[in-house]
Structures are given as C-alpha cells and as structure tokens.
Design a protein that fits this description.
Distance between the termini: 61 Å
Radius of gyration: 18 Å
Number of helices: 5
Shape: globular
Strand content: 5-15%
Length: 142
C-alpha cells in the first residue's frame, strides 16, 4: 500500500439480541457481572466477599450452591440476611469464574484456563442498564 491508499476493512459485529425480547435472569446476571468487573466493583472469592459483606459495601451476592464446605454457605447466607443483601445461587463454580473474569480468553474469544469461583459480591454496579433493572425486578417479585 502506498501512502494515499485506504484499505477496506470489514468488521463483523455480533449482537447479543435475545429473539424472544425478554432477558432471562441468568443473562441479566452475566451482563451485570461484566459491567461491575469493568467498573472494578467486584469482590471475587470467599475472603474478599466476606470482607465486603461485613463492611456493608455489597449490593448483591452470588455464590455456588454446590460448595463443598457447608460452613462457607452458612457464613455467606448469615451475612446477607443480617445486612439485607440480595442473594443469587449459581450451579457451577467454573461458569461463575468465567463470568467474573477468572479465565484467559484465546484468539477465538473462547475462555481457556477457567478458575472456579465460590462467591462473588457486587460492590458497584457501574452504569445503569436494562440487565440491572431486570435483576432488581426479579428480587422484587420473590
């Protein structure tokens, strides 16, 4: 290419549009966790999460229901109940670890070397979004 030529570049944009139109709670949770990660509003892991819960910095707590240590679950549930913090249970630790960025992303955009995460606390939601309103409205209906 010479200095005067302009290259035509095609960029493919993948839109995450749900065809049904309604966002599920799981999709909303994924988006809220990603936005909180970008705004540095996540406490990942049991130690960080318990500290944030105890300091009343938490807005939302997400933990894995298949945790091997039942004392961890009791501690997290007790702190959330004491401080009136909303709780969501997730089935898989690896999936939660991928959602909160505890993985490497390869060239194809797929997650590799995913580390499991037992508990995550959202301290800062970041910007207001549709996913956040869907998530908060799901707590209202419970």
């Amino acid at each position: 290419m010479s200095d005067g030529e302009v290259a035509d570049v095609e960029v493919e944009v993948a839109a995450d549009v749900n065809l049904a139109g309604a966002m599920t709670v799981e999709d909303a949770l994924q988006e809220v966790l990603k936005k909180a990660l970008v705004h540095d509003g996540l406490a990942r892991g049991l130690r960080e999460s318990v500290k944030a819960l105890d300091r009343r910095q938490a807005h939302l707590c997400v933990y894995v229901e298949t945790c091997t240590e039942k004392e961890y679950v009791k501690l997290v549930e007790a702190l959330c109940a004491e401080h009136n913090i909303n709780v969501i249970k997730v089935g898989d630790a690896k999936k939660l670890g991928e959602w909160v960025g505890l993985c490497k992303i390869d060239a194809n955009g797929e997650a590799r070397k995913v580390v499991g995460c037992s508990c995550v606390v959202v301290k800062d939601f970041g910007e207001d979004s549709e996913a956040r309103s869907v998530l908060l409205s799901s707590f209202q209906t419970r």
